[in-house]
Design a protein that fits this description.
Blueprint: H1 5-12, H2 29-49, H3 60-73
Helix pairs in contact: 2-3
Length: 81
């Protein structure tokens, strides 16, 4: 598979994808708030995973902790549509 060396260099120099907000899909404000809070936590964690210094990236235990917490929120909420 060919590699894009220019893209690889840009990533090493800090290029990251643009992050978008979760759309409002729930009428119940408390349910929408749970998703927005989870989104904010996810974005923060994702940015830490992108740190160029491996020592500053979260450990597997921290990832597990977050995913377990979010799993407790997400599957218990049915998405409209």
């Amino acid at each position: 598979m060919p590699h894009d060396l220019d893209l690889a260099l840009k990533i090493c120099q800090g290029l990251r994808p643009e992050l978008v907000e979760v759309p409002k899909i729930f009428d119940a404000k408390n349910v929408q708030k749970k998703y927005e809070d989870t989104e904010a936590e996810y974005i923060e964690l994702m940015k830490k995973c992108w740190d160029s210094n491996p020592d500053k990236r979260p450990k597997a235990e921290k990832l597990y902790e977050n995913f377990r917490k979010w799993f407790g929120i997400i599957p218990n909420t049915s998405i409209p549509g």
